[in-house]
Amino acid sequence: QKQVVPFQDGNASMKALLGGKGANLAEMTRAGLPVPPGFTITTEACLAFFKMGNRMSDELFGQAAAALKQLEKQKDQAFGDAANPLLVSVRSGSVSSMPGMMDTILNLGLNDSTVLGLAALTNNEKFAYDCYRRLIQMFGSVVMGIDAHHFEQLLHHRKEKEGAKQDQDVTAEGWKSLVEDYKKCILAQTSNAFPQNVHEQLRMSVEAVFKSWHNQRAQIYRKLNRIPDEQGTAVNIQSMVFGNRGDNCGTGVVFTRNPSTGENTFFGEYLINAQGEDVVAGIRTPLPIAALKHEMPEIYEQLLEASRQLEKHYKDMQDIEFTVENNKLYLLQTRNGKRNAQAALKIAVDMVHEGLLTKMEAVGSIEVSHLDQLLHRGIEEEAVKDVLAKGLPASPGAAVGQLVFDADTAAQWNRAGKTVILARNETTPEDIHGVIAAEGVLTSRGGMTSHAAVVARGMGKPCVCGCEEVRIVLNEKRMYAPNMVIEEGDWITLDGATGRIISGIMPLKEASMTNELLLMLEWADEIRTLNVYANADNPEDARIARQLGAQGIGLCRTEHMFFSPTRLPVVQRMILADAKEDRLRALAELLPMQQSDFEGMFEAMDGLPVTIRLLDPPLHEFLPNLEELQRRHAELTYDKSGSDLEREEVAQLLSKVQALHEANPMLGQRGCRLGIVFPEIYDMQIEAIFRAVSDCINRGIRVLPEIMIPLVGHANELKIVRELVDSVAEQVLGKDNLRDCPYKVGTMIEVPRAALTARQIVAYADFFSFGTNDLTQMTFGYSRDDAEGKFLTHYVDQKLLQHNPFQVLDTEGVGQLIDLAVNAGRLVKPSLKTGICGEHGGDQESIFFCHLTGLDYVSCSPYRIPLARIAAAQAFI
Ligand code: PEP
Ligand code: MG
């Protein structure tokens, strides 16, 4: 089994084995691009390393040594050779991109004697010792685990001693002394010396990179991005090229298109005379790539050419790291560039127009999570007064929050329910929990490709970076803007689209659809076979849903129509009524209200199906809370406060609430059970529906009503209610008119028994709609109201469950019930219509499952519709 693969022997299809970076380096090498040679230690080797208790096998050693020999030949240099030393970088490369999450060591192969060789070869002692001290610094912190600030302090002292402002101002002698300082520091901190044996350096570095798979920030990132822990990381060993050898050297990052706007323009940044990490770390603020055109015109053209070639090759926008050494261009890495939603859409649409992608490929390339971002918020411009400062517009969207200056505080305040903006000089991967907790991120240093920018963009969070107008003083917990001092806890607004930082709380406005999105949705509609309906309970939501592309209403929860302040008292009167006549009187009052609701819905959905669910929740939900009533009752009784009338009323209410009280209301008298015990309630609702139907038909509206019965668990339940529906329909519409109204009656499948007895139930159903919220609750036996807070989050954290089953459909268990019910139902009634209306209807993975199971539609909240349309198309692809 090959655990080490030279770049020239790999290719892009070997990503699972070589990691993303390794596979791309191999692919670029094969395409003849100028990649410094090297080799990849595979993810399988990493997993074997973990299995052996974090040890490398002799076998792996042997293979690595052989690859190193080959590399020495290719480069005509030797590892550890004092006269002609080969230097390498060691970098992690996971299968799914995890930018900055794991460790990197550069300049490996330097020691007290090879540094002399490097100095002699390059005729540049200052450069050689700068490389050496960087190695010791990285090796010390990454491999030997010494806190980075020790090295930073020593560097700071050295610069002070030399009177050097910038790192470049330090002399060769300065670097030499610093090397000695660093070595002493390592010895003092770990009782071990910095290893002079270069093979020892290499072995320790590879091990450290493997182990960094398990560091905290990598674990958090994986969880956030749903990357499996079992993947492991590959390690890439690559011969070094130097961007910091002088002024004909440099290093940078380019995107083949603008990752913020999607425009087809070359985009990126570079630094002259700098080494790799300087750009990404945001320590020096780099120049825009356009400036390279003037500084190094030939290199610029080569880079442009290579980037075109790579984009064509990968059929996607690329993020390329390059280094120029003595006026020669090297490509160190390429990957599909991270981008925000707006850019992703524009790029995909443009690529279709350019003939680079088919429509199907374009729709397939859209990350569904990106669509969330597209409905991004912006600031109401009229409200903007105090612009404190302006930085780079790194990730669009607007965020309002209280300012904090460190990641821990951000996380703490967030847990306490506050909304925060995290401001840092620059962020590092260590700050990831703060970035997650924050509404938006602000940095005073670093460019558009800095850590903060890349991470925030990936998360769809607003970010302003490189805002050098502000000064953040950590120990004062203050930020100095040109005309104002902002303290920790002060409210600010970030505008990630323009880079503005604004004092105070700005009103925000919601985003609108772009032309690119509309076009993409159109293409998705051409592809998908799964219909997308909306869950909507009022005409306004129905209209929005229709605008967003809903092909019907899959769930109208009629109880939501009861919750308005004018209606609730009538509903309560209906519930509290002792005599049937009183109940009927209250219901008669409710009837016209419901009727007008339904008319509004039918009007909004003219020509499209509207699924109306009869009353579902237990009645006590419409009455005041039991404990509050008990408290009030006690007050009134013992303190003798309040009037006799109030005492009387409260006592009455209390006894009714007590009578309705159930130990397990979710398993109690709700859904059709309620409608069967109190048929007058369903009777009223059905009458209201058909009066509305009749009225709308007379007004020329095309009405397709579908009446849905909740919580059925036995065929007889549906039988009874269906008979009620049919008889009321006939009464209201009359036999003749019935023909003009092809209404449907169906049931929700949300009790496991309903799924298991679908064959019987289907006799009375024209459609099945899977209520996966309750179906999940009852299949797992997890309370949908309490489980998350009590144990479910713990289960997911412990990976006992891969996902929260209330978010992502449990295809293994709940899915099996769905599959079973669909098949059983269709066997008896091939025309049976099937859909899903639980929250899962708006979740990508669940939508995939619905497509595969052959459901006719998914129904989700209106704002999820664009996402569902794309996901449904992707499920088909
Ligand atoms: C369901 O149970 O999935 C459902 C859609 O109904 P509700 O959420 O109203 O119980
Ligand atoms: Mg339900």
From TrEMBL:
A GO molecular function term, named singly, is: kinase activity
Segments forming domain PEP-utilising enzyme mobile: 419-499
Q: Which residues form the Pyruvate phosphate dikinase AMP/ATP-binding domain?
A: 66-290, 301-353
Which EC numbers does the record give? 2.7.9.1
Has the keyword ATP-binding been applied to this entry? yes
Pfam families from the UniProt entry: PEP-utilizers, PEP-utilizers_C, PPDK_N
User: Which residues does the record give as Mg(2+) binding sites?
Assistant: 750, 774
Which UniProt keywords are present, listed alphabetically? ATP-binding, Kinase, Magnesium, Metal-binding, Nucleotide-binding, Pyruvate, Transferase
Transferase as a keyword of this entry, yes or no, is yes
Q: Which cofactor does it need?
A: Mg(2+)
What SUPFAM superfamilies is this protein classified in?
A: Glutathione synthetase ATP-binding domain-like, Phosphoenolpyruvate/pyruvate domain, Phosphohistidine domain
Q: What is annotated as the active site?
A: 451 (tele-phosphohistidine intermediate), 837 (proton donor)
Reaction(s) catalysed by this chain, per the record, are: pyruvate + phosphate + ATP = phosphoenolpyruvate + AMP + diphosphate + H(+)
Q: Which residues form the PEP-utilising enzyme C-terminal domain?
A: 520-875
The residues listed in the UniProt record as binding substrate, with positions renumbered to this chain, are 557, 613, 750, 771-774
User: According to its UniProt record, which protein family does this protein belong to?
Assistant: Belongs to the PEP-utilizing enzyme family.
The protein in question is named Pyruvate, phosphate dikinase
